[in-house]
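## retry 2 of 3
previous attempt timed out at serialization; input unchanged, resubmitting
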Amino acid sequence: MIASLVREVDLTTLRDNPNCNNGKEVIETVYFGGGTPSLLTPIDIMTLLTSVKRNYELIENAEITIEVNPDDVSIEKLSGWKNAGINRLSIGIQSFKEKDLRWMNRIHTIGQAMDSIILAKQAGFHNVSADLIYGTPGLTDDEWKVNVDTLINLDVPHIACYALTVEPNTALKKMISLKKKEDVNSEQQAEQFLLLMKWLKEAGYEHYEISNFAKPGFRSRHNSGYWQGKNYIGIGPSAHSYNGHSRKWNVTNNSLYIQSIKKNVIPFEEERLTDTQKLNEYIMTSLRTMEGLNLKFIKANFSKDEKERIEAVAKKYIVNEKIILKMESLILTDLGKLFADGIASDLFV
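## retry succeeded, writing output
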């Protein structure tokens, strides 16, 4: 698989991006995610990063992240990843409560979750993100506070928190429908999200995107690129790419992917985005950020009519204190963040 990934990097370029240096695309971040990237050896990572540097202009202070599971972490692996070029970790903690981990079918323990953060610091990783999930059945507000306080006390500079969602056609959905597992409570999730915002604000974290909180200087540069509509290149099975005009996604089947790459063909599908899709996507992503939806940007990149239409629709949300208008930007209030998807949908064309 590594050979196929390297070959795809060699085959890939976003030719219509003007942000180039000496003919090479400039890359600001690299993210090893999806599946279980922490199974990659340091040699694998160095091989892939060498391929990236050969084909692209990787900036000197590039953010290079790897997603890891707590049970994959050891001081030896951390040292290896760091020496290979990784400078940021995203750790899937999810919870410091054993019952939550079992309910979510996570295989790591509370001890491994704690150790993964402590060992990361010992290995010299200062840029660490940890994920938590709230709204799981039976998770009390007090227990949720313990989860959040644990990360605060461990001085984790970036925290990503997600409400538990039950996707259709999944084993979890079936278990809930058969009454073998308790269903989620949306009111409980809303309350725990409000508490989360309060606690992390008091602890000095910026709520820079609906699900993401960071101490100053520790925002995820990679994920921020998605929310800012920047171009990105995806490598590997199921990987997605975006160039401002279209989206591409590779086949999901590993075998088909490898066989195609051997023929020097990247196996992908593509969707050209309409102006309506581009506008709706900007509305959705910008509204999730602390900077909000910029009305000047709408006027300059779409039309004056669209700016005025959005302003008109947004008035009711300003009145009911779900949105504030600040320096020609529409910004969700804490209350509004509970209804972010619905508000964005209402603002869509």
